[in-house]
């Protein structure tokens, strides 16, 4: 099946977001020391918050390919996609295209093809303005509840 990755006209996209859930792929990029990458968002939802990089799924695009695309487009990184951390459901009162948004997020663990990954290795897109690495057990109330949830789930998977 052909991948349809061209931009959807703004009005059509707004109508879609207003009426149905959106499927997204998100990445939890892990370093060898166990730290994970968070990027600070410049747009809604959660503008200014540290969050996991992610993107909508295009028609015909495999989930793992979408996660790799997130690495390339949002972080400038080639990612090796690992196991799925989980499937999550997010509900947002604000959204970049306008109305509230409901997303179904398939979250993958990933590693960058860079030894000693640091912020200097990351080239952010216009949706983010900064990057940081944190240990999952350091993710506290400073972070959005969805970030906290993924961090808890990652810790549980690592300890099992």
UniProtKB/TrEMBL annotation:
The keyword Hydrolase applies. InterPro entries: NUDIX_hydrolase-like_dom_sf, NUDIX_hydrolase_dom. Pfam families: NUDIX. It comes from the Archaea. Keywords: Hydrolase, Magnesium. Gene3D superfamilies: Nucleoside Triphosphate Pyrophosphohydrolase. One of its GO terms (molecular function) is hydrolase activity. Residues 18-156 form the Nudix hydrolase domain. Its cofactor is Mg(2+). PANTHER family: GDP-MANNOSE MANNOSYL HYDROLASE (PTHR43046:SF12). This is ADP-ribose pyrophosphatase. It comes from Haloglomus irregulare.
């Amino acid at each position: 099946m052909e991948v349809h990755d061209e931009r959807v006209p703004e009005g059509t996209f707004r109508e879609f977001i207003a009426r149905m859930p959106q499927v997204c792929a998100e990445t939890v990029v892990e370093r060898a020391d166990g730290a994970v990458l968070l990027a600070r968002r410049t747009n809604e939802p959660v503008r200014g918050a540290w969050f996991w990089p992610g993107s909508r799924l295009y028609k015909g695009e495999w989930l793992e390919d979408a996660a790799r695309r997130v690495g390339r487009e949002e972080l400038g990184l080639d990612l090796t996609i690992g196991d799925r951390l989980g499937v999550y459901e997010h509900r947002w009162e604000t959204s970049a295209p306008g109305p509230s948004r409901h997303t179904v997020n398939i979250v993958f663990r990933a590693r960058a093809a860079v030894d000693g990954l640091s912020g200097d290795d990351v080239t952010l897109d216009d949706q983010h303005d900064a990057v940081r690495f944190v240990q999952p057990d350091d993710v506290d109330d400073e972070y959005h509840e969805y970030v906290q949830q993924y961090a808890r789930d990652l810790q549980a998977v690592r300890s099992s």
